[in-house]
């Protein structure tokens, strides 16, 4: 999400009036509210965000916020939905372009880490640290998102095992590079480990005040996890 410009509604007599911005449509205003919420979550100190502070940042009244979202919880739900749509759009692109299941899982993991690095405020939502004290359904919603990610990783790794375990015809048909795997390779266990690694990297990124990049040394570490 790109930063949002503040729209001032009141101008003093001593202050020249700025050119009036184009009036936003309801859907655009909702997006700007979510953009601003995500930006406020990027503050190094993990302080609870109030609707009053969010309204002040936007330069509108709290009542104006509630015309677009019934509650702050609904704002967070909108942000979670945006994150989910973005991530699974990227995941679907990876699966469509990369035929090798192991490389699919690796690319997905890197994508999740890179998304975090570029969107620190949204990372606070993914780790649920921004949701402390909020409605419990928000944490459940994030958990559902992560379960979808883990299911995608399992599917990728199962494909990788199938390609590595003798399905040469399938591999040759799709020009899949051979990646040696151990005889006891378990896609379910590896997918769980991979997701735990990603979540751990997100947490370290947040707790370091966004100073420890989540994708630091990720290439080498993912090779250890996936092969």
UniProtKB/TrEMBL annotation:
Pfam families: SlmA-like_C, TetR_N. This is Nucleoid occlusion factor SlmA. Keywords: Coiled coil, DNA-binding. The keyword Ubl conjugation does not apply. Residues 1-23 are annotated as: Disordered. Residues 27-87 form the HTH tetR-type domain. Residues 50-69 bind DNA. InterPro entries: Homeodomain-like_sf, HTH-type_TetR-like_transc_reg, HTH_TetR, SlmA-like_C. PANTHER family: HTH-TYPE TRANSCRIPTIONAL REGULATOR RUTR, NUCLEOID OCCLUSION FACTOR SLMA. It comes from Paraburkholderia sabiae. Residues 128-155 form a coiled coil.
